[in-house]
Amino acid sequence: MYACTIADPRIADVLLREIQPGDLLRVTGIVVQPDDPMAPARFTVDALEVLEAAPATSSS
Predict the structure, then answer these.
(1) 3-class DSSP state for residue 31?
(2) Which of 2, 32, 35, 37 lies at a C-alpha separation of 20 to 30 Å from 57?
(3) Is the pLDDT of residue 46 over 70?
(4) Whole-angstrom distance, CA of residue 28 vs CA of residue 39
């Protein structure tokens, strides 16, 4: 798991409103490791693509 920032606020909107658990995603961006080896890496998201939507669940 990475701490991340998003280059385009529309990506955050898609993540919050449209992505469902189980969706297969392609997330591209840049990973940067800080100079301090104990600090977590940071990931800047540049693009998000849904490769395959999760199967729909049936509600009874």
Answers:
(1) strand
(2) 2
(3) yes
(4) 22
